[in-house]
Amino acid sequence: MSITVKYFGAVAEQTGTSEEELNLDETGNSVAQLKAYCVQKYDLEEEETIQLAVNQVLNAGEKLEEGDEVAFLPPYAGG
């Protein structure tokens, strides 16, 4: 079962890619497991500030399914 993972901004700079296909058997099938997998794989900085969107919905459900698209979003600055 595979998913598409997209990285944006500073997260893409740290991973060295903007998109990849990952297998849920390798990453685990929850959002938290996927985030932990990618944080470790790429040694991502400021992991607590990275937000994930599943199928373009922030803070979507916990369980991932075949064909999902997950976006790793960098922290936003505001003022």
TrEMBL record:
Stated name of the protein: Molybdopterin converting factor subunit 1
Top-rank taxon, per record: Bacteria
Gene it is expressed from: moaD
Pfam families for this protein: ThiS
